[in-house]
Amino acid sequence: MENHHILHCSCASRISLLFLALCLLFITNASAFNLTTIKFDEGYSSLFSDFNIVRSPDDKSVRLLLNRLSGSGIISSDYYNYGFFSAKIKLPADYAAGIVVAFYTSNIDTWEKNHDELDIEFLGNVNGKPWRFQTNMYGSGSLSRGREERYRLWFDPSKEAHQYSIFWSPINIIFYIDEVPIREIVRHPAMGGDYPSKPMSLYATIWDASSWATNGGKEKVNYKYEPFASEFKALVLEGCRVDPIEQISSTNCTDQIARLISQEYATIKPEGRNAMKWFREKYMYYSYCYDNLRYNVPPPECVIVPTEKERFRNTGRLREKMRFGGSNRRHRRGRNSRQRSRNSAASSGSGKEVAAAAI
To answer: What pLDDT sits at residue 128?
Structure first.
């Protein structure tokens, strides 16, 4: 891979100064994560609606469909005691309002009332408007203390696949787009059980969230455009595997966790810090850390960044009027146990550019 990547783009007069700046900046010393991808049957199985799951002939990718009958979902075959979870995801094209595509870890199957969860959720879009998505964290069923942040994407995720990743260790959690860190949560002793610490599975789903996902539920799923397809490829499941029934590992996880923490994606380098700062200042439009109405005192893991804080009201939302509305209320995905989900069909109801802009 070349050490210097020059950004070439054509900027029309209507493009904002932000994107004009993107065209003039470059990234240096870029390096790729050393990831091992797997085939679908090496790490995944169907979660619900087999008839809406389409595996590629080489089993290296899978398409999840949503139509009038159902959404669809897949789940990792094992639980993981910490890990790195990644996939290149291409979202539905055309009209995608009301659709949620989720890539997340959870153990709600086993700990229904005190589960852990790490989310990346894409919240649908209206043609011509930026795609929005959110990240979230729950520990020990702390649904009333969710830690969601919401953002816009700087590209159209329906045009080509981009890599989305979740790194989870006993020390920290990092969310990535391509190889750009967009959010880090460093474990703080005062978090207690709010920090996810029990083994989790990896899920990917597509479903109808017309009641809330796009413009607060004003824009519904339009089944005139069905089926809606989201493609997942370059599947990565790294970590200490835990038996999904016994909830214990076949080997001691100590060495595997140490190896996980030693990987390049486990820490954020200075250039990654710059990229993350740039992304959050330009594209984040809600953060629980600045929501003083919800939290009189910010949760202990929050790092209050002055350049971020000055952009937000005490509701955690941007000061300036935004045109891509939506609700911050927590929703349920309709997931129960793994077995119940498998037995029933769910009802329809590039990163380098960001790093370049930060240099």
So the answer is: 73
Query: 32-282+330-358: which CATH topology?
Result: Jelly Rolls (2.60.120)
Q: What token pair was written down for 119?
A: 């989310």
* Integer Cα distance of 294 and 328 in angstroms: 11
Say if residues 333 and 347 touch (Cβ distance below 8 Å): no
Q: Which of 98, 138, 99 is nearest to 115 (CA)?
A: 138
Which residues does the chain have with pLDDT short of 70? Answer: 1-31, 244-251, 321-359
Q: Give the model confidence (pLDDT) of 116-140 as tens digits.
A: 999 999 998 887 788 899 999 999 9
d(CA 179, CA 336): 33
Distance CA 242, CA 304 (A): 36
Find the distance separating the first CA and the last CA of the chain, reported in whole Å.
19
Main-chain dihedrals φ then ψ at residue 261, nearest 5 degrees: -70, -25
Instruction: Give residue 251's pLDDT.
Output: 64
* Strands of the chain, DSSP E: 4-6, 26-28, 44-48, 53-55, 61-66, 72-76, 79-90, 99-106, 117-122, 132-138, 149-152, 162-168, 172-177, 180-186, 201-208, 228-242, 284-291, 315-317
The answer for residues whose C-beta is within 8 angstroms of residue 188's C-beta and 6 or more apart is 195, 300, 301
Rama region for 351: left / alpha / beta (φ>0; ψ in -120 to 50; rest): alpha
- At 303 the pLDDT is 93
Cα separation, 142 vs 320, in Å, equals 31
Q: Residue 204's closest CA among 225, 230, 181, 171?
A: 230
What residues are labeled active site? 117, 121
Q: Are 174 and 146 in contact (CB under 8 A)?
A: no
| 8 A C-beta contact, residue 333 and residue 39 | no
Please give the model's pTM, rounded to 2 decimal places.
0.84
